[in-house]
C-alpha cells in the first residue's frame, strides 16, 4: 500500500457475496491482495499460475466469478495469454467475466495490450484498498448497466 495514504475502514457488506479469482505468481502479492479483497467482504479463490487460473475457471459454475484479478507478468503463461484463453472458452461467462490487469508495470502500452487481450481495466501495484474498491465499483456498475439494456 502507498505510504501517507489514509485508508478507509472496509465495509464488509460492500461486496458481500461476490466471488473473485485472484491470479498472481508472487506469494506476498497474492496474500496482500487477498486480504484487501476479503476486507471488502469478497470471497477469494487464488491461483499462482495462468494454467491454474484456467483450471479453476473451468471447474467453476458458470457465473460463479464476477471478477478476475490477473497479474500480467507471470512465469509460464502470462496474464495476457491466460485472459485470451478464458475469452475463447465455450462458456457464456468467459466472454462477460470482468478481468482486471494487475501489475507494477502499468504504462500506457501495458494498458492498451491488456484491453486488446480482453481485459476490462487495470490496477497498478502498489495499490491501496481504495484503488481496488473504486475499480470494482466502476466495472460492476458498467456491467449492471449493460445487463439492464
From TrEMBL:
Q: Which of UniProt's keywords are assigned here?
A: Phosphoprotein
Against CDD domains, the record matches this protein to: REC_hyHK_CKI1_RcsC-like (cd17546)
Query: List-wise, which residues carry 4-aspartylphosphate?
Result: 71
Query: Keyword Cytoplasm: yes or no?
Result: no
User: What does the record list as coiled-coil region(s)?
Assistant: none
Output the InterPro entries linked to this UniProt entry.
Answer: 2C_system_His_kinase, CheY-like_superfamily, Sig_transdc_resp-reg_receiver
- Asked if the Swiss-Prot or TrEMBL record annotates the protein with the keyword Phosphoprotein, the reply is yes
Which residues are in the Response regulatory domain?
19-140
What task does this protein carry out? May play the central regulatory role in sporulation. It may be an element of the effector pathway responsible for the activation of sporulation genes in response to nutritional stress. Spo0A may act in concert with spo0H (a sigma factor) to control the expression of some genes that are critical to the sporulation process.
Can you name this protein? Stage 0 sporulation protein A homolog
Question: Which organism is this entry from?
Answer: Jutongia hominis
Amino acid at each position: 500500500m502507498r505510504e501517507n495514504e489514509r485508508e478507509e475502514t472496509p465495509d464488509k457488506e460492500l461486496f458481500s457475496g461476490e466471488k473473485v479469482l485472484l491470479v498472481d505468481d508472487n506469494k506476498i502479492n497474492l496474500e496482500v491482495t487477498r486480504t484487501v479483497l476479503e476486507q471488502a467482504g469478497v470471497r477469494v479463490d487464488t491461483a499462482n499460475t495462468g494454467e491454474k487460473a484456467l483450471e479453476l475457471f473451468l471447474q467453476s459454475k458458470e457465473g460463479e466469478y464476477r471478477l478476475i484479478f490477473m497479474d500480467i507478468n507471470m512465469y509460464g503463461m502470462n496474464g495476457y495469454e491466460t485472459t485470451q484463453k478464458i475469452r475463447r472458452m465455450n462458456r457464456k461467462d468467459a466472454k462477460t467475466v470482468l478481468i482486471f490487469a494487475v501489475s507494477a508495470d502499468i504504462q500506457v502500452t501495458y494498458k492498451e495490450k491488456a484491453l486488446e487481450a480482453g481485459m476490462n481495466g487495470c490496477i497498478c501495484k502498489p495499490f491501496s484498498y481504495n484503488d481496488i474498491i473504486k475499480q470494482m465499483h466502476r466495472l460492476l456498475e458498467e456491467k449492471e448497466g449493460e445487463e439492464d439494456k
